[in-house]
Amino acid sequence: MADHNALPLLVLTEQFARLPGIGMKTAERLAYYMISQSPEDVEAFANALISAKREIRHCSCCLNLTDKDICPICEDSTRDHSTICVVEGPKDVTAFERTNEYNGVYHVLHGLISPLDGILPDQLKIRELLARVQKGGVREIIMATNPTVEGDATAMYIAQLLKPMDIKVTRLAFGLPVGGILEYADEVTLYKALENRNEM
Amino acid sequence: MADHNALPLLVLTEQFARLPGIGMKTAERLAYYMISQSPEDVEAFANALISAKREIRHCSCCLNLTDKDICPICEDSTRDHSTICVVEGPKDVTAFERTNEYNGVYHVLHGLISPLDGILPDQLKIRELLARVQKGGVREIIMATNPTVEGDATAMYIAQLLKPMDIKVTRLAFGLPVGGILEYADEVTLYKALENRNEM
Asked: Which of A46, B94, B100, B152 gets the highest tally of CB atoms within 10 A of its CB?
């Protein structure tokens, strides 16, 4: 931006530009938009930022994001606490909850094993998962990490650790996405769909 | 978002979703991103919002956004204050400044006449422009609003008001964009390019 621009506007633009997927052009547009809002609206935004950061923490059981000590899912006694769905991040929990079909609980790893990016198993919440299992009462662990190299490796790694504990470990099914078009499916997906075919 | 999500996170997501061009999915992603930043970084963002809104005002001369009483452009005595470039918004000033070719000053209308959207001439900074001209010392007014129905109408309207004041009023040239491809130009642009052709 040209140097004639007022400094506070420049600072705000740069803050917006630091957000993922937001370039300088969009950041400039957003900064101008915020300036055009009422002082109350701008303050509400600033407060939302501060209080989200201050109040959101990891659930001490499943490590999902929450503003309580134990998240509502872990606290819900009507849910099946013997089934734990292991996911990469909080967004995956949201995705599963949207299905309205899953009644177990979760465990959020906060990442996937990725040696190339310097992310080793120690940096994930795997220790916490093992501690939960050791407390007893768990019958099944569903490995629900993404079907990617990192997701598969992480699922495999955790499955190995759980083996001696004599617990059922399952993996999400892979196949054609519902509503997908066969001719556009990639080879690996199609192979998986064929391999895991079910009797009708 | 599902109701299991923590309230402060939901509030922040909704704040992001209110920004223009940002949907719920992106807003969610941005909210999660902010949570993952350090408290200092989040506070810096919040402060940038607050201080931009508090410190940015309209230049008392050209009405561009600035954090001073008079903006640096209006205060610059090396610039030609007898030529005023009239633009729709502050972003247009930035665009002209980027050319490094314009040495006059600006006047920001903060909108265009658009009766269908309920924007009438009174809501624009036209009165302020006339007051500047009446003070004297102005030789040329360049109407640099967009080549749209609203932009043209606004330029025409202001030109009419300036007529009795005996001041040169000009309009930006319309034609092929530099680097543009002729076969992709729309008919009106091509017609304008033909009509305004120059001798080589």
From this structure: A46
